[in-house]
Amino acid sequence: MILCITHSQDTYTIDLVQQHLEQLGYPSFRFNSDEFGTRYRLRYRLTAAGPQYQLEHGNTLIDAADITGVWYRKLWELKVPASLDPAYVPAFVKEYNTSLHIFLDSLDVPWINRIDIDHAVSGNKLLQLTAAQAAGLAVPQTLFSNHAEDAIRFYDDHNGDVVVKLHGALSKTMDGRGDFFPTTRLRKEDVPMLESLSACPMILQQYIPKDRELRIVYVDGEFFTGSLRAPDTTDWRTASTTIIQWEPFVLPPAQEEKITRLMQLLGLPFGAIDMIVQPDGQYVFLEVNPQGEWGMLQKYLGFPIAETIAEKLVQKITHA
Fold first, then answer.
1. What is the CATH number of domain 209-320?
2. Is 0.70 topped by the overall pTM?
3. What are phi and psi of 159, to 5 degrees?
4. Which pLDDT band holds residue 15 (cuts at 50, 70, 90)?
């Protein structure tokens, strides 16, 4: 049994991966993490034979010992029962999150991606940039600060060619839903607002002129790359999904080798990587999202990403 960790609003990608796992002869179980406190039961017993962890949903009972692999797509915020007294919400969230991680930590099987590594990488963009630089990729000059003087000096040093973004920026789903703070070009009239950095540290980066933006999906050595000439905007996700026209793109072997090195350094078999191709043909790494969206590349370009995820996970299981 392969455990697929996602959330109740997830569509398309989760279905494709599960369908292909089934075709490969590997049944899977969809675990909607946001519903853990409302629609699942977790049971832990310490028996004479050792610990026993079980997850129950409706008439389905999953024993941790029967799980052979995990596809970790998303971990979502817990839904809280509407009837719960607000005074008990903090305890509800804390205890259910603890229970969930006790269960997940018990799964000593192949993962794509291991949850601890996934969270460590997604939660530290400076780690990503450092690893990318060590792997030989070009990266933008970057400042992460809560100090206005640092930010203003950085702005001046780059002659105003600077973008600003949150470290933990909210991101849209492939259909454009969800709260969002895009990467934004800093204007001269915005500079006085940098005094507010003490309330919210932010990332400032040199602005990279672009000919094309790339979304590179890396699956354990395989590459699926979409490119676009976005409208005149700093972040392609701010554009209407009806305007964006994804095109297939072939990465040079040298860039594939560097990205492979990066992913090995980070310990990630999967990631969605954002890069820019400059007008002079140079490639610049921006970030890697271990849970990044890729459904649009499968849907519009026909890339077999879901199939590759399923096949790579099965390979890990058979060679474990």
1. 3.30.470.20
2. yes
3. 55, 35
4. very high
